[in-house]
Write a structure and sequence with these properties.
It contains five helices and 18 strands. By secondary structure, it is α/β, with parallel strands linked by helices. The chain folds into two domains: 77 residues, no CATH class; 206 residues, no CATH class.
């Protein structure tokens, strides 16, 4: 039997097995898209076969089939079933049902290099979707009395697509949404990532963003009377959008000239809008002195 004949035979068997696993719900049908993005492995396998086919170690040419089937298996395990039950194969979606007993959500999200998108949720307490081209995260959820605690940590390494069509595809490697009627305290840690926080419809109380070399967009709302925010990130770009009726106080002397052009008044280490103390919604922001860019817009 020639190595090519053996390779194609094993490959057809593997494809049949994967289709059966699709029908059984053990792996997601999205598996085939991710596998397609690993198509250069086929060239590598055929190249290995050609190198050893007529050599003294010709039996190594059969490694081409092992390479192909091994890749298919690894991609299947990493893709998973796409279910929400929290087992090993629940790779890309996770949710926690609405709970009327929860009065506060504290969330810590270490997203690494993965782009992060956050918004409100009208049905679940918390819902997460994680792009299949990023490594599935570790998720820990607990509830103590009326406080829900969420911790999400990225996994370093892991399967990545051999072909990256666009590293900034849609800025939603990780999408998270939180209940729109439950106060939220949020911490986000990353590096060289796009962070887009559409929290204008969330009762946010505290926010910490750490993202070196990243692009940070934050849209605030008026659902919490006092909001404390800290943005840290060397050489990061920050775009902050706040409601016109919101009182703003900023700690960041390095940006004094720009803040004064917005009408903010200097007082000690802070710059604040007129009537900040009497504003119905107060936003206090502490800025990293090493940001690359800062812009504040009202809506």
């Amino acid at each position: 039997m020639t190595p090519a004949r053996f390779r194609w035979g094993i490959l057809f068997i593997a494809i049949g097995v994967m289709l059966l696993l699709n029908n059984a719900g053990e792996i997601s049908w999205d598996y085939w898209w991710e596998l397609f993005c690993w198509w250069p492995i086929l060239l590598i396998a055929i190249g290995v076969e050609k190198i050893f086919l007529r050599s003294r170690v010709h039996y190594l040419s059969y490694l081409s089939a092992v390479i192909l089937v091994g890749t298919m298996t690894l991609v299947a395990v990493d893709t998973g079933a796409g279910t929400d039950d929290g087992d090993f194969f629940s790779t890309y979606r996770w949710s926690e049902d609405a709970d009327p007993e929860v009065k506060l959500i504290t969330a810590s999200i270490d997203h690494g290099h993965n782009d992060l998108f956050v918004r409100q949720n009208s049905s679940d307490l918390i819902y997460g979707r994680f792009d299949r081209f990023s490594r599935k995260p570790r998720i820990e959820y607990s509830k103590a009395d009326d406080v829900a605690e969420l911790e999400i940590n990225h996994r370093s390494g892991g399967m990545r697509s051999v072909v990256i069509i666009n590293d900034r595809r849609h800025s939603r490697d990780w999408s998270l949404s939180f209940a729109e009627n439950v106060p939220l305290e949020l911490k986000c840690y990353g590096d060289d990532a796009d962070v887009s926080l559409h929290i204008d419809n969330l009762p946010l109380r505290k926010l910490l963003v750490y993202n070196d070399d990243g692009d940070i967009y934050i849209k605030c709302g008026t659902l919490a009377p006092e909001v404390n925010m800290k943005v840290t990130g060397d050489d990061a770009k920050l775009r902050l959008k706040i409601p016109e009726q919101c009182g703003l106080r900023v700690a960041g002397e390095e940006y004094g000239d720009y803040l004064e052009t917005l009408g903010l008044v200097a007082e000690g280490r802070y710059y604040h809008t007129g009537g900040f103390d009497t504003a119905s919604v107060k936003l206090t922001v502490e800025l990293d002195p090493d940001l690359r860019h800062l812009s504040v817009d009202y809506y």
